[in-house]
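ok trying this again, last paste got cut off
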Amino acid sequence: WLQRLQPVFALLFVALAVGLMVLIYMRYGREPGVDYGERYEREPPTDDPPGVVSAIMGQQPSVGTREFTATLFDLIRRGVFTAEPVSVKEGGFLRQKTLTDLRVELGPDGSGPLKAFERSVLEVARRVLSNGPVKLTDFEERLKDDREANRSSYDSFRDKLKRDVEGRYLVERSVGRLLGPLAFLLGLAGVMWFVLSLFGLSIGAMISLMFANFIFFIIGAAIVWMVSRRVFGGSFLNQLWVRRTQKGALLHARWRAFRRYLDDFSRMEEAPPASLALWEQFLVYGIALGVAEQV
């Protein structure tokens, strides 16, 4: 009778694994609740660097090219680099158009006090500007001149910014990153048990078969896990890996309100800030928040 009830036991095993994943998500995967209900913040809520702000704004806190770009523009705003507008003509004689660009060069007072991740951006920019000023639209092409060194500096930027965000206790590596895969493996083992039981194999034969193919089972489970992470994005499995803390969740809510302010500003009946310097700051944070076009 145990042989006949194997499919039932296997399904119960799968249900147990699913229940464990739900409990792990409820405990470790959900975003901490915050007591904040404002729709708009009309100025930057904190003085956190734009790279840090951008890193915590995604569904899963992460670091990439947008954080790099925001940091570069922040260094320009702070005078680490100087930039002046220039006109660039494009197109042929009959369809020629004039575009505005920025010519960037190293500032006269050097780098000044910089954070570790900002120094990595400075390293890249110094290589690009080693032979003199460069138009901003030419930056990407110039990065290829020293591809390996710039890739190393970029990877260093990502690692240092991640450590900076973690050092501010804005995100935490959840215990769910260990418990989640374990529950997932249990569920996958239950599914395999159910499938094999349909072929009439005994429990002993199935255990022997699974141990004999243990390595293939782990490889298959890893592939399924990675595909699931990509399919679900940051909404479930990724939050089991890293999530915002209570402090980070509040900061995220406040900066989302500031992003709504920048996004909806053109529809508001109020005077814009008079200070150009303030709008330069808004632009840098607009890059970090993904609304640079509107700013």
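PB: full thing came through this time. The longest strand covers residues 81-90.
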